[in-house]
Amino acid sequence: MGHSLEFWDTSSSRCKCLLTVALPSITDLSQSYGRISNPTLQSIMPARTTLYQQLSVFPSLSVLSSTLDSALLDIDGLSISWNNSSQSCLIKATTNTWSRAARRRKAGKSSRPFSSSRFSPIVMQCRIYCREDVSSEKHKLLLEYQWVEGSERSVFDSFVNHVNRKVSSITVTQVVKH
After folding, report:
1. Dist CA 153 CA 64 (whole Å)
2. Predicted pLDDT at 146
3. Please, what is the average pLDDT of the chain?
4. CATH of the domain spanning 50-177, picked from 1.10.3720.10, 3.20.20.100, 3.30.310.80, 2.40.50.100
5. Neighbours of 77 (CB within 10 A)
6. Residue 35 pLDDT > 90, yes or no?
7. Secondary structure, 3-state, the chain
8. Maximum Cα–Cα distance for the chain, whole Å?
9. Residue with more model confidence, 15 or 164
């Protein structure tokens, strides 16, 4: 039995139902189902938890995943767990080491490598998938970022932007060499 969400206008003496939205079952709450598609309500919805970066210069998923791995290994303080069967990795960060401010602080202090305890609290955790976009004619490759854990959306956004820049810069370097 499905559930629904109703929005009521209670500003006058007569209550009026403005909108009724059918909700999916609790086992089917991926982002695509869990978001209300009504454009009127988009402004009050929370930010998306899945971001995509389309890439067209990679010849295969294996090249994309190895480039992503190289980019991630250049970022201090990350715990990276690869799942080769799904071409994805789980990233855990106990501190923000990729933002400009963090890199400036590190450069100003010393050149010693970042160290963290394995019991440090996680500031951001996300999963990155290397995917092939089969919906387009050219079968472009893309990176899909899913925010798993963290209290600040800005930390996730800055991480995604940093990784996208690093992957793109590695791509440009590889294209120039060939």
Report:
1. 26
2. 94
3. 78
4. 3.30.310.80
5. 19
6. no
7. CCEEEEEEECCCCCCEEEEEEEECCHHHCCHHHHCCCCHHHHHHCCCCCEEEEEECCCCCHHHHHHHHHHHHHCCCCEEEEEECCCCEEEEEECCCCCCHHHHHHHHHHCCCCCCCCCCCCCCEEEEEEEEEECCCCCCEEEEEEEEEECCCHHHHHHHHHHHHHHHHHHHHHHHHHC
8. 73
9. 164
The confidence score (pLDDT) of residue 26 equals: 42
Cβ burial 80-118 (10 Å sphere, 16+ → b, else e): eeeeeeebbbebbbbbbbbeeebeeebeeeeeeeeeeee
Q: Which is nearest to 61 in space by CA: 127, 128, 132?
A: 132
Mean pLDDT check: name the lowest of 24-38, 46-60, 97-111, 161-175.
24-38
Boundaries of every domain in the chain: 3-44, 50-177
How far is Cα 97 from Cα 23, in angstroms, rounded to an integer?
39
Distance separating alpha carbons of residues 165 and 178, to the nearest angstrom: 20
